[in-house]
Amino acid sequence: MVSLPDSFVGVKTGDSYVIGSSFTPYDRYVIHTELDAMAFPGATIDPWSWVETTMATTLDLQRTLLDGFHPTDPADLTALEVDPDDVLRLTVPYGRDDSGDFNAMSVFGVRGAAHLAADQAGTLDALTATGTDHFAVNATNTYRSETVGGAEELLGTMPDLLRARGSSIEVPGPPGVPNSLCFEIVDALTEHVTCAVQHGPYVAEVSGDTGKQAHQLATAQYLIFEGDAAGG
Q1: Could you say which DSSP state residue 117 is in?
Q2: How far apart are CA 143 and CA 108, in angstroms?
Q3: Contact predicate 150/132, CB 8 Å
């Protein structure tokens, strides 16, 4: 493609679609971009042109992100701390016999959290607007905002973010847990209950196969927050 002179580009076409894939060397990285476009009869946008233009734009955005990234020297990898800002320790851990999520015991920044969300753009906007800078993953997920007000605002965005996962119905929250809300969420594969709990500068997100499981996790998470706030 003319606008991607440094990229190796492959294109696959069908009667109603165009799929483009590119590999572009940049500094110590190789950027892989893949896009697809539908070619409907009578469409005013040429799918070939859209794929090429969007690939070029995506590469520019990705290069900007890489320019601001400072990778850790491989010799220092073993010295990296898992939970340097004490956010992961506030999550509810998986039990010994639980299979756990493959991202468990991890801490992410704003962009990492957005990548794991159903509504990636909405999550990125919500976390940025509320000054939320950490996201820890375990049996429960914990967000940390810079201020209590930011956490309260983040809790207010949770209904919309949760609805991005599927159809949802608000259900009662866990008894005795203030600043909490729960939704029964149904998507193409599962039906579960997800709750969000805010305490101080933190918001936790918990999910269970049943309302009882979700309430138990939410209560356990709230008690952890309470203990931390009391200096326990």
Answers
A1: S
A2: 10
A3: yes
**72 DSSP 8-state letter:** P
For the beta sheet containing 29-38, the strands, ordered from the edge strand earlier in sequence to the opposite edge, are 8-13, 17-26, 29-38
Q: Would the pLDDT of 10 be above 80?
A: yes
Q: Where are the alpha helices (DSSP H) in the chain?
A: 47-67, 110-115, 120-129, 148-163, 211-229
Q: pLDDT for 66-97, tens place per residue?
A: 999 888 898 999 998 889 889 999 999 988 77
Would you call 160 helix, strand, or coil by DSSP? Answer: helix
Which among 143, 174, 140, 177 is positioned nearest to 158, based on CA atoms? 143
Q: What is the pLDDT of residues 21-70, one digit of tens each?
A: 999 999 989 999 998 877 666 666 677 788 888 989 999 999 999 999 88
Long-range contacts of 68-77 (CB under 8 A, 24+ apart): 71/28
User: What per-residue confidence (pLDDT) applies to 45?
Assistant: 65
Residue 105: DSSP 8-state: S
Contact between residue 170 and residue 181 where contact means Cβ atoms under 8 Å apart: yes
d(CA 197, CA 216): 12
The encoded tokens of residue 144 equal 């940390």
In the chain, the amino acid numbered 8 is: F
H-helix or E-strand containing 30? strand 29-38
How far apart, in Å, are the Cα atoms of 213 and each of 68, 207, 220?
42, 8, 11
